[in-house]
């Protein structure tokens, strides 16, 4: 077993000015290559702290992969620090320098003098070609350890990893990239703690492992199996998946890349039903999610964002008496909106939402996060009160996902089983 640590350098990461997508990508790829990543560390552009972090990483890992600090400026110091740790001299590589010069020549620009620094390589190191930038990657093998240095820009780092680092590691581990296989089940309704309670004994398993990932409006249940082949890993996952679906029924709506909008849309298409949507507090987000799915025009007829009371009346036909007596955020208004948009579009099914997304506008009687949703069809009229918490965008997203899930449950005939997710 090879253990690894990912070290990300860059003060901009510590300040939150850049999102560290490199670490996420590398951790996922290492797992697939049979390399166990036990630690991830982020450090700023300071040579003393970079050295401390890399030395610590070398104490607890066989392999250290760094990103960042390979540029031409004075604060790009990662390879110099690594060379110093292992007592290696820095030597100018003529082939690397020629590639850097050619890089600028192709762009019709003179090469700045400080780019020569990027051609300095620790003695005996292996070079990883960079076809998209000027910073070569470096593999240093010394004292029974391996350090792989990669540039920070993801569009440079990822091809370098795929072309050179992945084959290098695959050769060392003798593990096929396909032997670690994952499947993610997507859950809407119960929160993370409820899901954990229902699956608590399954979460102790070691192969396949089961992990929970809380999202804004969903909980993801990731199953990961290690096996000699993908087919065998899938078979191992299948048994656990069936049990998880049974325990969480009917709240698992899909898996992996499936979205709730795509699942609901597929059901509409299979049943040859059409849909119309009226939105207030979500501001068109439900329609946006639906129309992000290819082929949505087969079932999605119209989306109306009726934010003002005037629009609710003029476009959707919500009576002034309803708005005056019950207010815009009420079950009566939601139902009238759904009826109105269904009538307007001639749709088989209509959805409507009205609520208070905040941060202002709430009251003791109608707090921020209060939402009323309605579903209307030829055989059903359903109104539900929902209460969400969070900032404005969170409330909008939770509303949109919940409403689309309610549509899914209606279309599968399972709405009555979903009233008490806890």
CATH superfamily of the largest domain: MoaB/Mog-like domain
For the termini, the CA-CA separation is 41 Å
How does the major sheet shape up?
6 strands, mixed
Strand order of the largest sheet: 2-1-3-8-7-6
Summed up, the domain count is 3
CATH-derived architecture of the largest domain: 3-Layer(aba) Sandwich
Task: Describe, in plain words, how this protein is organized in 3D.
By secondary structure, this protein is α/β, with parallel strands linked by helices. The chain has three domains: 2-175, Molybdenum Cofactor Biosythetic Enzyme, Chain A (3-Layer(aba) Sandwich); 178-255, 2-Layer Sandwich (Alpha-Beta Plaits); 260-417, Maf protein (Alpha-Beta Complex). Helices cover 39% and strands 24% of the residues. It is built from 14 helices and 17 strands. The chain has helices at residues 11-14, 21-32, 47-60, 78-86, 94-106, 154-173, 192-199, 230-248, 260-270, 285-291, 309-314, 320-326, 331-345, 392-412; strands at 2-9, 35-43, 63-67, 90-92, 120-122, 126-128, 137-142, 145-150, 180-187, 209-214, 219-226, 252-255, 275-279, 300-305, 349-355, 370-377, 381-387. The chain has a six-stranded mixed β-sheet, with helices on both faces. Strands 14-13-15-16-17 form a five-stranded mixed β-sheet, with helices on both faces. Helix 2 (21-32) runs parallel beside helix 6, helix 3 (47-60) packs across helix 4 and helix 9 runs parallel beside helix 14. It is elongated, with a radius of gyration of 28 Å. The two termini are 41 Å apart.
What topology emerges from the helices and strands here?
Layout: E1 2-9, H1 11-14, H2 21-32, E2 35-43, H3 47-60, E3 63-67, H4 78-86, E4 90-92, H5 94-106, E5 120-122, E6 126-128, E7 137-142, E8 145-150, H6 154-173, E9 180-187, H7 192-199, E10 209-214, E11 219-226, H8 230-248, E12 252-255, H9 260-270, E13 275-279, H10 285-291, E14 300-305, H11 309-314, H12 320-326, H13 331-345, E15 349-355, E16 370-377, E17 381-387, H14 392-412
Parallel strand pairs: 1-2, 1-3, 3-8, 13-14, 13-15
Antiparallel strand pairs: 4-5, 6-7, 7-8, 9-11, 9-12, 10-11, 15-16, 16-17
Helix pairs in contact: 2-6, 3-4, 9-14
